[in-house]
């Protein structure tokens, strides 16, 4: 992979751990795109989209599926379908993607009010807190209609939630006449890690949004699944949001390759994440909670004795061609996907070592200065000035 500007400009090997969204379509995917049978999906007749939707619905054990442009659109449409009556409220986790990273779209576009319940560190919501958050029938309150959870939980390090919990939450929802939506952007990773079929994991849910472009490694899109009635309403909303796309089979085709060829190998990404985490526990200045590395993410905590902030670690790593993301002042994230090999992991561990080593950083500075045009110019000026005297 090329094209990443590092400070020295000499690094050839790039290991891109910023996210599982950075994968490039494989040759098989491009071939599938070129050969895809297509027709007008707004008219509902694109055969490749139809196949993808049917397969995803079957994997999730639901009636039907709908291809949408993104995970954000999938969650937005799902929440809006469940909360189609004005004055609706949704119970969501304090660390959820819907709450933090979707521009508050369910409110700005859908007029849905959010009732935020604090996420536990394992990604769940405390069932008592959820029950307490459900509004009684009273004119002062909005009407609770929906509960959302996220599996795996992205901002809590890719923790996965088992079916036992989800069943209980679903039971609670049904007792109160509420719907349950699962933001399953990485539900394939959860199912792999728990060794439970997806269908079982989402049995209690009324709808699920599954990203094709995260761990599955397809270039574009998500699929939402649910009952026939849910999908019929979702299809109308998708059109209103500008998400009705014509010869969409060209995007469904690589997603089918992902489901058939990549979904079954996600355990390799999880192994690689664990390998990195293990390697990093031996390095001073950072800490990884090994037990919390359940899927394809590693959250690296920067300890107080570290000379570098998370941002500085990312910058330093970038000089070695290791791309990561600083989530906060003291948290760096590395995410694994099918285009990262075991050898990349060993290389990344060595680069973390170098990035955090004081002597190596000093050496880098000297090399960078030596290679820097301005520094060389400055030296020439100083030398010239010294020569004349
Ligand atoms: C990425 C992500 C989304 C949104 O998907 P986009 O395709 O980026 O819009 C939603 N939920 C979770 C948990 C995600 O990780």
UniProtKB/TrEMBL annotation:
Domain (Aromatic amino acid beta-eliminating lyase/threonine aldolase) spans 16-301
Keywords (A to Z) from UniProt: Lyase, Pyridoxal phosphate
What cofactor does this one take?
A: pyridoxal 5'-phosphate
**Which residues get modified to N6-(pyridoxal phosphate)lysine?**
214
In terms of InterPro entries, this protein maps to: ArAA_b-elim_lyase/Thr_aldolase, Low_specificity_L-TA-like, PyrdxlP-dep_Trfase, PyrdxlP-dep_Trfase_major, PyrdxlP-dep_Trfase_small
GO biological process terms on file: glycine biosynthetic process; L-threonine catabolic process
- Cite the GO molecular-function annotations of the record: L-allo-threonine aldolase activity
- Does the keyword Lyase belong to this entry? yes
GO cellular component terms attached to this protein's record: cytosol
Checking Pfam families in the record gives: Beta_elim_lyase (PF01212)
The reply to whether Lyase figures as a keyword in the UniProt entry is: yes
Give the family, as the similarity comment puts it: Belongs to the threonine aldolase family.
Name of this chain's protein = Aromatic amino acid beta-eliminating lyase/threonine aldolase domain-containing protein
Q: Which organism is it from?
A: Ceratopteris richardii (Triangle waterfern)
